Amino acid sequence: MNKRILEILSMCLLAKENGHDCFFNYSPHVKQIDVRIFLNGWENYQDPDHGLTAYTNIKSPLYKESELEIIENILIELI
């Protein structure tokens, strides 16, 4: 799963190259990632175009593969 988290972070950085600001946060104590995406860049007092959260602990009842796939698919479209 660590590799997948790093790939999502990498996609966030690649999206920046195309003018999109992605705020990536990883909370290891609960194995959760949060990604906030601002299409065409961040501006003050602007809500993100996408605000996504996913749990990465497969054994957790909060884990949903589909949430990770949604994050990955949105980022793929941006890169």
Describe this structure in words.
The chain has 79 residues and is of the alpha+beta class. Helix content is 38%, strand content 25%. The chain has a 3-stranded antiparallel sheet with strand order 1-2-3, covered by helices on one side. Strand 1 and strand 2 form a beta hairpin. Helix 1 packs parallel to helix 2. It is globular and about 35 Å long. The model has no long low-confidence stretch (mean pLDDT 95).
Secondary structure elements and pairings:
Layout: H1 2-17, E1 21-27, E2 32-38, E3 50-55, H2 65-78
Antiparallel strand pairs: 1-2, 2-3
Percent of residues in beta strands: 25-35%
Percent range for helical residues?
25-40%
Tally of extended strands?
3
Radius of gyration: 12 Å
Along the chain, the helix and strand elements come as HEEEH
Distance between the termini: 22 Å
Q: Tell me about the biggest sheet? A: 3 strands, antiparallel
Task: Give the overall form.
Answer: globular
The total of helices stands at 2
**What number is the mean pLDDT?**
95
Query: Strand sequence of the main sheet, in spatial order?
Result: 1-2-3
The structure class reads alpha+beta
Low-confidence stretches: none
Descriptors for this entry?
alpha+beta, 3 strands, 79 residues, three-stranded antiparallel β-sheet
Quick summary:
With 79 residues, this protein is of the alpha+beta class. It has helices spanning 2-17, 65-78, and strands at 21-27, 32-38, 50-55.
